């Protein structure tokens, strides 16, 4: 298959009736506004929990819970808005993209264009600009990923490059030249906001620390556990999304936090389908795609166990999750196949 063919349903041999797809992919403001209202109410409740626990040891679990409800949806909503599918109304979509990207900590246009590239060349070495870890992943890579240290380093570098107009080769590859002034402006405004938040305690203003900064740090590992399983242990350089991407079963809470993105195979097959329609899309293509892997906790536990055994030179066969054939070894030295691009 030619290198320029995008990775999607067509490249994966999945078919869906056009009328069905058109109905499922219809955009509307209503589901996004309902989600936004539910998210705001959840943050108000968890924020109240943080406020009520100030001065006690309970503030730490309160900030963790608040952080999970802050970070996972901010990632998922910024992702959805980057696709332009969160709302039908453009200004609503772009406003939510900007605000959620501020929380997620990535300039919104950079997020949009690198993610478009990720869909076009999903998990293709040297082409996919959103490969967040080395493959195969060992325990050190797993730890760097789920603590958020690797992602934070990448985001800081992106902000500095954009703010100083020192655009990287990847940026020039994925983004139109005409977007660079807006990207620079966004980066500078966001850095100024982060500086104000950092300076707030020196002016005696502590609420950003308790409601934004510490929860963002505490909630990041949960957010990254959601994103880690999207492609880890799967096939690089395949035209088929079915080989490179993972869906997993999800309960109502995880589905809410992650905006149904646990249906990740289906999302990559048809990225124009909005978040609220992904469960319906999954049912429509169920017979053509692999069964979803186990739930969030079990899938992540198996990934953790595989990376640990790999670092110890032991067998890397996982009992319940899908793995590319070359990821399963009886043990021994590990040869790096690809390096992270973010």
Structure, described:
The chain is mostly helical and 342 residues long. It has a domain of 226 residues. Helices cover 58% and strands 0% of the residues. It has 16 helices and no strands. Helix 8 packs across helix 10. The longest helix is centred in the first third of the chain and has 25 residues. The protein is globular, with a radius of gyration of 20 Å. The mean pLDDT is 96.
Q: How do the helices and strands line up, and which of them pair or pack?
A:
Elements: H1 9-12, H2 18-24, H3 29-52, H4 59-83, H5 90-104, H6 108-120, H7 139-147, H8 149-163, H9 169-174, H10 180-199, H11 207-228, H12 241-244, H13 252-257, H14 264-269, H15 278-284, H16 296-311
Helix pairs in contact: 3-4, 4-5, 4-6, 4-11, 7-16, 8-10
Secondary structure: helix percent = 55-70%
- Rg of Cα set: 20 Å
State which percent range the strand residues make up: under 5%
Q: What's the N-to-C terminus distance?
A: 27 Å
Brief overview:
The chain has helices at 9-12, 18-24, 29-52, 59-83, 90-104, 108-120, 139-147, 149-163, 169-174, 180-199, 207-228, 241-244, 252-257, 264-269, 278-284, 296-311.
List keywords for this structure.
58% helix, 0% strand, mainly alpha, 342 residues
């Amino acid at each position: 298959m030619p290198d320029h063919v995008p990775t999607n349903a067509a490249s994966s041999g999945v078919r869906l009736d056009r009328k069905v797809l058109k109905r499922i992919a219809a955009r509307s403001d209503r589901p996004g506004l309902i989600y936004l209202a539910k998210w705001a109410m959840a943050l108000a409740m968890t924020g109240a929990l943080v406020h009520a626990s100030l001065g006690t040891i309970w503030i730490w679990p309160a900030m963790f819970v608040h952080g999970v409800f802050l970070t996972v949806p901010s990632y998922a909503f910024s992702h959805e808005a980057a696709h332009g599918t969160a709302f039908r109304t453009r200004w609503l979509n772009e406003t939510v993209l900007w605000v959620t990207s501020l929380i997620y900590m990535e300039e919104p246009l950079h997020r949009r264009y690198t993610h478009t590239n990720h869909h076009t060349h999903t998990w293709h070495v040297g082409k996919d600009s959103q490969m967040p870890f080395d493959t195969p992943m060992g325990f050190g890579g797993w730890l760097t990923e789920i603590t958020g240290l690797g992602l934070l380093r990448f985001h800081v570098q992106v902000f500095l490059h954009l703010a100083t107009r020192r655009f990287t080769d990847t940026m020039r590859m994925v983004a139109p030249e005409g977007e660079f002034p807006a990207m620079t402006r966004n980066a500078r405004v966001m850095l100024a906001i982060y500086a104000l938040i950092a300076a707030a305690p020196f002016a005696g203003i502590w609420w950003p620390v308790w409601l934004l900064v510490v929860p963002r740090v505490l909630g990041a590992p949960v957010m990254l556990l959601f994103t880690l399983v999207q492609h880890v242990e799967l096939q690089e350089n395949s035209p088929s999304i079915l080989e490179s991407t993972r869906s997993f079963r999800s309960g109502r809470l995880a589905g809410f936090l992650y905006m149904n993105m646990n249906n990740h195979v289906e999302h990559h097959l048809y990225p124009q389908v909005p978040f609220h329609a992904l469960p319906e899309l999954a049912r429509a293509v169920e017979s053509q795609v692999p069964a979803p892997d186990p739930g969030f906790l079990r899938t992540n536990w198996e990934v953790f166990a595989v990376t640990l055994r790999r670092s110890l030179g032991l067998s890397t066969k996982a009992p319940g999750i899908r793995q590319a054939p070359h990821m399963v070894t009886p043990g021994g030295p590990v040869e790096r196949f690809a390096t992270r691009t973010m």
